[in-house]
User: What shape does this take?
Amino acid sequence: MARLKFIDNISGLQAVQLLRFITFLIISIVFTKSHLSRTQIGNWELFLFISSLLSFFWVSGIIQSLLTLYSRNRTFREDGETEGRKSPELFNAFLLITFFSVLVFAIGIPVKIILSSSQMEPGIPYANLLLLYILVSNPVTLIEYIYLLNKRPHRIIQYGIYTYSAQLLFVLAPVVAGFDEKSAISGLFAITAIRWVWLIILLHRYTLPKISFDFIREHLTIGMPLILTFLISGSAQYIDGIIISARYADPGVFAMYRYGAKEFPLVLLLANGLSNALLPLFSTRDGMRGALVTLRHRSARLINYLFPISIATMLVARWVYPRLFTPEFTRSADVFMIYLLLIIPRLVFPQTIVIGRRKTRIILIVAAAEIAVNIPLSLLLIRPYGVVGVALATFIVYSLEKVYLIWYVWKKMKIRPAEYIPVASWLIWSALLVLLFVLIDHRIIDIH
Assistant: This one.
């Protein structure tokens, strides 16, 4: 692959996350057009959902804490050159992810037996395969971050193109050939096996196989608050669902909310990619100033690209939803439009600085406060606004979280907002998006 000048760690990580999203989107579209029944497609989706639900919070916490510790930690190194050096940090992070994978697998076995004895197992598709997939699939998430930390952005993109192209082939080919959804799950195992070979090669090339319980302890000290934070944040959508289910007996209302309560994936993926790619730079004293400049520049680029896309999407949301689904889901568009507003807090990144400087306890405290405020606010707003009020509470609470973190970075870390936020463009685009939402909500602009 020719080395394009605009490819760096940030764009490389963003690209591979987009490839992952596009791959699963294509699979979902092809499945709906295939011979698979709704039940079979549901089994596939539930398989992916449960495996992600049981893994995402601790994988994310371990990865993000690794990114902050790689260049500077008490066990192996202080600030210094990392390139070209075999890393014991990466090896111990691999051991930590593998340990958590084995732990979930070990806990899952008796849980499965209990559910089986109580005749609840049929609700979990392919439970044995699910536990095995959780065991083997999570360690390979290290691959793109090994490349990231060793400043190989082109390799990140190569890895993404090769493996996600192969994933499309392994998952879709058997279904197109007439087999059931279990064959698609077998395809997931096949590509995971290839990724394991890839991972072993990278571990041999870039890591020093030296077990350090001191580093693992340091890693968990930084990472555990992040793990708990992701667990708490991830539970918010389920709490919202419980509130709606308790308020409305009609399951159709819950489905209508769920179809709309989806954050714009392009915003989410690119923002997370930018944040994760910059975490190693914020972990060192020498990298701080440059990282702030890069964060401001790259977030300005995202603002100028993604806000216009969000505005265009908001304009057509009420037209698209009843045509994409059915007229009964028109109200889902109102929920979705509020979730589009999440781009406003999403594209400011005080949390990147806080995590990069290893102030992970404050992130945990803020996440706990977010849940504590979100529940009563959702209960308050659901009365006058229905399910839209629950979405509105999510937007308000998430915005307040970012405001607090901006204040924390300013007052406690002495970093002004203008140093990492393109304030003028962010405010202008935010005002335009909110204005458009108000005009659409009051039917002054109405596209059907």
Notes: Residues 1-211 form one domain. The chain has two domains: 1-211, 225-448.
